[in-house]
Specification:
The protein has 3 domains: 22-100, no CATH class; 109-185, no CATH class; 198-334, no CATH class. It is 51% helix and 9% strand. It has helices at residues 2-29, 46-57, 59-71, 91-100, 116-126, 131-138, 141-145, 171-185, 188-197, 201-214, 221-233, 241-248, 285-292, 318-334; strands at 36-40, 81-85, 105-110, 161-166, 301-304, 312-315. The strands form 3 sheets. It has a two-stranded antiparallel ribbon. It has a two-stranded antiparallel ribbon with strand order 3-4. Strands 5-6 form a two-stranded antiparallel sheet.
Length: 339
């Protein structure tokens, strides 16, 4: 009888152990199927975090991860940040990562930005900072002065590219880190090239922003840059249409008429000699280099080609330029482009 009771007891223990193993195993053996970032927001509730985990990791894997967080009494909802759950991680290890793991870097990629307001909005959509908090700094003269900039030139620090930040980075630290990358770009060789042109890095960026708006053709940017450098050297007004459009603020314009050239603005290079107070867009590194390495030529006039290829006709004389301009205007009229 005792032997029978012992066998039954051992069987129950064995069955219980197997059942426990079958229950526990998925928490250690199931694997996350792809790299996934979990974002934990300030003041996030436990329920909200559970919902986010299930949404990003999948219902089943997410439930198991949330269960392990409860078992571990992790209180991960208090750990504001972005945490990478790598491909192949189990629910248990995913929970431990959310409990103790360090933040992962978040990619911030930007290009084709014109205004500081647009830039601040892009940043706020990717990183955990309010648009207005960053914008307030970038429009503050004292803050800009710390970097040797003004609110008109502060955009030169932010060069379109791919960067990595902690999601929780503060606005001041964000600008500091971007300034670090800016200084890496402006090495001794580039500074020497700018000096040889008689320009500061800010002036190079300002000229490059005009060049970038003048032509989308990267292989033409150096040639356009040299044309403007020739004008600066001979003390001619730049007379760059993009500066007039920037002053007007209407980017739907395709034709610049004589009355628009009278727009009262320090950015209007038809009215004022030299470069405007700052860039008219955030400038690509390749365009900065196009200015610094602009090939020599004697052109001082240019006009869009009448075939609408995006390239320009260049001229050394005003009469040649007028002939180029007439052909282009004739084609505008033929196509019915009035503004």
């Amino acid at each position: 009888m005792k032997r029978r009771i012992l066998i039954i007891s051992l069987s129950i223990v064995a069955i219980a152990s197997i059942a426990a193993a079958l229950f526990i195993a998925p928490f250690f053996l199931n694997k996350n199927e792809k790299d996934t970032i979990i974002y934990i927001y300030p003041d996030m509730t436990e329920v909200a975090l559970e919902d986010s985990i299930k949404a990003r990791l999948g219902e089943d894997f997410g439930k198991k991860t949330s269960f392990m967080l409860k078992v571990l009494d992790a209180k991960a909802y208090n750990r504001t940040g972005a945490y990478l759950i790598p491909n192949g991680l189990s629910p248990y290890k995913a929970a431990r990562k959310l409990q103790y793991g360090g933040q992962t870097g978040v990619k911030f990629i930007f290009n084709n930005v014109r205004f500081v307001d647009n830039f601040a909005e892009r940043v706020s959509k990717r990183l955990l900072m309010e648009k207005d908090d960053l914008l307030t700094l970038l429009k503050d003269s004292a803050f800009c002065a710390k970097y040797g900039k003004t609110p008109q030139t502060i955009s030169t620090i932010f060069q379109p590219d791919s960067y990595e930040f902690y999601w929780t980075v503060k606005p001041e630290d964000f600008v500091d880190r971007m300034y670090h990358f800016y200084n890496k770009f402006w090495n001794e060789e580039r500074l020497a090239k700018a000096k040889a042109l008689g320009l500061t890095p800010d002036e190079v960026a300002t000229l490059a922003s005009i060049v970038e708006d003048e032509t989308a053709k990267r292989d033409e940017r150096g040639k356009v840059a040299r044309l403007y450098l020739n004008r600066i050297k001979t003390r001619m007004k730049l007379q760059a249409d993009p500066t007039v459009i920037y002053a007007i603020g209407d980017y739907s314009i395709r034709r610049v008429y004589s009355y628009t050239l009278k727009t009262d603005s320090p950015y209007n290079t038809y009215l004022h000699f030299g470069l405007p107070p700052g860039p008219i867009r955030f400038v690509e590194k390749s365009t900065l280099d196009a200015v610094l390495n602009a090939p020599s030529h004697n052109y001082i006039y240019m006009c869009a080609k009448e075939n609408f290829s995006g390239y320009h006709n260049f001229a050394t004389s005003y009469s040649e330029h007028k002939a180029n301009a007439r052909r282009y205007q004739k084609e505008l009229n033929r196509r019915g482009i009035k503004r």
